[in-house]
Amino acid sequence: MRFINPFKGLRPNEKNAPFVTTPSTGYLSDEAIANHKKNNPWSYLNVFNPDHQKSASKNKANIKAKEQFELMKNSSILIKDNIQSFYIYKISLKNHSQVGIIGRVKLSAYDNLHIRGHEEIYFERAQERFDQMLNLNAQIGPIYVIYPDNDEMNELIKNETVIEPRYSFKALDERHHELWIVDDPNTVSKISEIFNKINRIYIADGHHRIEALSKLLTFKKHQNPNHTGKETYNYFMTSIFPKSQARILDYNRLVKDLFGYSPKDFIKQVEKKFFVQKENSSYKPNESQSFGMYLDKNWYSLKLKKASKQNLFHIVNLDINVLHYYLLEPILGIGDPRYDNRIDFLAGFHGMHAIEQKVDAGEASIGFSLFATKIEDVINFADKKLTMPPKSTWFDPKPLDGLVACEFE
User: In DSSP terms, which residues pair with 168 in a beta bridge?
Assistant: First the structure.
């Protein structure tokens, strides 16, 4: 097997694709999830988040989820390809589009560092993914990875997408999704050959999923006395986009209280380390080591007075680290952001007004807008085998769950 391989995908029929597929729930409110499940009985949300889950035992919830998944297949809502294929996948929104390949990768490449990640893995989240995939015996959503740009691959994708896509629809995330099926043996082989030359990819989104898949491989290997290493559970499905097209949005911070300070006294403390300028409108930083701050119905811009210490926390000086080291920890008393319940996070696609709404509603006392993490920093961390601080990156747009699924036969 090569580095990136074709597979027989499980896809929704074209008519039902907008109603079956689901975006990351990070895009959706609880109300939107409830409405979509109610109005779309074939939605994968009814598999991932069945309504009875809160009241029933975990075992009963798993049984119901499995029954729903099997019903979708038996009712031809989901149809499996009978030819080994790659899938060209384009996601677009108003000012951005990206196009990549959905294929399968051998899990051993993750262990051998041909696939590199940048996030810390939390056992509970990985276990939840493991339980879900073991129950369904399938991977429903691809792991989103990026690869170094390649002119040969760009030209191949360009040639393959001159025809009409098999799927073209706006999903619940308000992004436009298009899919082309590539099953010509010569083209399939060419795609694999190109990726063999690249031979390194980076996880953008899906760290817990790939950890769960590694655990699933071990589990199934123990179950199978005739294990050969060629079974479908030795591979995982991934959606691979070129580095130049990957888009990272800001990941902003909210803090519940001012740690006993009045707004006036708090600003005095901030001014010891930052230049503070009151702004007439919402402020989104346009350069590194500068921040927006929303407090008491006013926006301020913050700029660090002196260059930050080299290798803060012994790693790259991310803006997230700078804000924490010079403001959140010493002034607001915020500890480890993984566990401190006084801090919350807000992905940048919500916009600056979302920070204002949270603070004005009393859900937080202060909000901070950050400059988005650079893709080069993500790769730098991954190459150094380091983990980034929590909530460092929000890749947007993200691949849908359920547009193509991969069963472990």
Answer: 178
pTM over 0.90: yes
Instruction: Report how far residue 85's alpha carbon sits from residue 91's, in angstroms, rounded to the nearest whole number.
Output: 19
Pick the closest to residue 115 from 137, 145, 86 (CA basis): 145
| C-alpha dist (Å) from residue 106 to 87, 231, 241, 253 | 17, 10, 18, 37
The per-residue pLDDT string of the chain (409 residues; one tens digit each, 9 = 90 and over) reads 578 999 999 999 999 999 999 998 888 888 888 888 889 999 999 998 755 445 457 888 899 999 999 999 999 999 999 999 999 999 999 899 999 999 999 999 887 778 999 988 888 989 999 999 999 999 999 999 999 999 999 999 999 999 999 999 999 999 999 999 999 999 999 999 999 998 789 999 999 999 999 999 999 999 999 999 999 999 999 999 999 999 999 999 999 999 999 999 999 999 999 999 999 999 999 998 899 999 999 999 999 998 776 665 545 578 998 999 999 999 999 999 989 999 999 999 999 999 999 999 999 999 999 999 999 999 988 988 888 888 999 999 999 999 999 999 8
Please, what is the angle between helix 207-223 and helix 123-136, to 10°?
50
CA gap 395, 316 in Å, rounded: 19
DSSP assigned state of 405: B
Q: Which residues is 51 bridged to in the sheet?
A: none
Q: How many residues does the chain have?
A: 409
Query: Would you call the peptide bond into 41 cis, given omega within 30 degrees of 0 as the criterion?
Result: no
Q: Are 85 and 78 in contact (CB under 8 A)?
A: no
The one-letter amino acid at 391: K
Decide if 139 contacts 129 (C-beta within 8 A).
no
Q: Tokens 């130049």 label which residue? A: 244
CB atoms within 10 A of CB 67: 12
Written as one string, the DSSP assignment of 280-322 is SS-----STTEEEEEETTEEEEEEESSPPPTTGGGS---HHHH
Q: How far is CA 92 from CA 100, 166, 306, in A?
A: 12, 16, 40
Burial of 179 from C-beta contacts in 10 A (0-12 / 13-18 / 19+): buried
- The SS3 of residue 1 is coil
The distance from CA 148 to its chain's CA centroid, rounded to whole angstroms, is: 19
Interatomic CA distance for residues 219 and 113, integer angstroms: 21
Look at residues 1, 248, 261, 245 and name the one whose alpha carbon lies nearest to residue 108. Answer: 1
